[in-house]
Amino acid sequence: MKKASPALAGGLLLLGVFFWGVTFPVVKEAMRTLDVFSFLAFRFFAAGVLLFAMYYKKIARCSKATIIKGVGIGALLALSFAAQTLGIKYTTVSNAAFITGLYIIVVPAVVAILDKRAPGGAQTLSVIMALAGLTILTFTLPFSLNVGDWWTLLCAFTFGLHVVSMGRMMGDVDAEAFSAIQAMTVAILCGAVGFFSTGGLNFAAGAASWKAILFCAVLGCAFTFAVQASYQRSISEISAAVIFSAEPLFAAIVANFYPGINEPLTARTLIGGLLICAAMAVSGAKTAKNPK
Prior knowledge:
- By secondary structure, this protein is mainly α.
- It contains twelve helices and no strands.
- It is globular and about 45 Å long.
């Protein structure tokens, strides 16, 4: 598949990150009537069905490598989302947003280990700016770690590995078929864990939870992960991580308007958001000058 321009890839990934930001308060609402693994199984099953319906012809003739990578990377994504959703259930939204965003450190660290060299100056600067913006945006004192925070920390590590995997292993796979297989892998694994840990999946969720499932399935999963599979290969893993760091900014903006939450926007939101935007500009400028 021919690579897209960095500007198009970055713009579509940023739109997907916006949908991820919206899912923070949506998931928090759904956790009132659903257990973690039922929610994830329903969410990713709906996304998988949608993607299979859209791309069944490509899936029917996809390569063995696409299937293997879809299942393998899907298993990593299942662990990431299970850890994050457990974290959101047991900790605050701001703590979950901040700790999840620590994959901005994990990605360059893993890339440096794999490439056996440190990131360039512009990439390092963009990571520092994004981390500073993330800290200003979400970090509060006193800060303590509870069980939900530890789950979210695991999510930050595994999602960082997922970002690197998506950047390095997608060259010989069909992106659309991969996205469908990845989503269905997450659904099956989460459904299996939910079934054996609780004796079954919870179908008795309220209307708000089913709306949350559909929103997260269509926009937070099917659209966003299809975009990631198709376009992340057009930018560096570190540039992708910087773009993904805007997730808590979007979560904070949406929380200001979301019914039942209404968290006010503050000067910290503005300053932290501007730093994250500046980090994306620095990273994007470097990518445009040196697409390789």
